[in-house]
Write the structure tokens for this entry.
Amino acid sequence: MGRRYPGDISVEALLEFLEVWDLLLDVDLQEGIPDRHIWRFSDSGEYSAKSAYEILFQGAVYFGPAQRIWKSHAPPKCRFFMWLAAHNRCWTADRLARRGLPHPARCLLCDQEEENIQHLLVGCVFTRQFWFSLLRRFGLSTLTPQPQDISFDDWWEKAEASVAGELRKGLNSLIILGAWSVWRHRNDCVFNGTVPNVATAVILAMDEAQLWSLAGAKDLSLLSAMGEGS
């Protein structure tokens, strides 16, 4: 950088002064009226930590599943698994193949199609049978994924929208629980040679649901109670 002289600083200061002059040219100061600070990022003009926090995310991309994942009652490991699933970051066969790692040629649960997280959680015929059996126990069999449902998040969003009020949180917990149970059963088949069995997976899920309810999942307990009464 070249050497700066006092004259350069004076010119910069003069330019800044003229800019401030232009900004204040239309300001009419009235004697006796105190100055007021206006925060333009809130309707009231008053500053709040909430409005400052919200302005940080203006223009940010909204991620739909975030609320359903992080605001639902479920163990942290299950919610983290759902976060990975939503970003297609689970170590299913397709992800292993892209990295040149050993992987099964087909889904171990149905032995019909290549495995990826969308297929595993909503597209697999085994998984659809699992969802029907699990949801039926809660009186929600009509929400079972159909053959045209190929996106787990789209199906979840549609299922959530069909349930109102207090049952919605319970359903979200149940869907997380179901997806986690499918993942556990799949891993048992991969690492322990277990034979896929819908009834076994459903029993695993129901046992897990009871533990979650005992741990304080009130919305899931309410959903279970309504299922027993239907």
Observations:
- The mean pLDDT is 88.
- The CA atoms of residues 49 and 215 lie 34 Å apart.
- The two ends are 79 Å apart (CA to CA).
